[in-house]
Amino acid sequence: MRPNGPLGANRRASVVFTAVTAALLAVGSAGCGPADPASGTPSGTSAPASASAGVLTIRDPWVKAADRGMTAAFGTLVNDSDADVTLTGATTAVSVLELHEMTMQDGTMVMRQKQGGIVIRAKGTHVLEPGGDHLMLMDLRQPVRAGDEITVTLTFADGRTQQFNAVAKPFTGAQESYAPGHGGPAPEPSGQPAMSGQPTTGPTS
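Predicted structure:
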């Protein structure tokens, strides 16, 4: 016999509430389970792909555009490591490449090959710039025109190497003379060296 009155109504409501709660719990448990691997849904944040840091960071590398003869590459060498780094050489496909410096000799600023390499101090920087240390491209095998990218390979005292690309930009600057006997061309009668257009401040945009 079905009970009547408030007691019976309460009992029926309790049964309905229990059934609905059980259904909701079942749906909730399914929703909190692990994602299907085949669905492509990431299960967490993945680490970004790592890239080789290299020996140095080279900031704003550029090379002076030139049709023939010689030119130079510049930039800022950044050493983020805890030890000094010594750059001992460099190569490129378009010419022989030497490490050069500018120095005073007999009252005249002259260019010569840098002996002992270029030292970039720990946590320091070293600027390659017109009028200072630079990478000298000797006797170009092909024109280096504005917009060209020249790949340069650096060699360090510990045997490590590193490549970077320098974009060629047009620039006309002061002429610079070679120190006698270091292997470069002799100055022309006008007092200007055989090389042309060595930049003094930076490239034009």
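Summary: The longest helix spans residues 6-31.
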